[in-house]
Amino acid sequence: MAQFHFDPRTYRAMVVAEVPHYERLQDEVAAATAGRRVTRMLDLGVGTGETSGRVLDVHPDAALVAIDESPAMLEAARPRLPPADLRVGRLEEPLPAGPFDLVFSALAVHHLDEPGKVELFGRIAAVLPPGGRFVLADVVVPDDPVDAVTPVDGIHDKPSRLPDQLDWLQQAGFDTTITWQHRDLAVVAADRPPR
Question: Residue 151: left if φ>0, alpha if ψ -120 to 50, beta else—which one?
Answer without folding.
Answer: beta
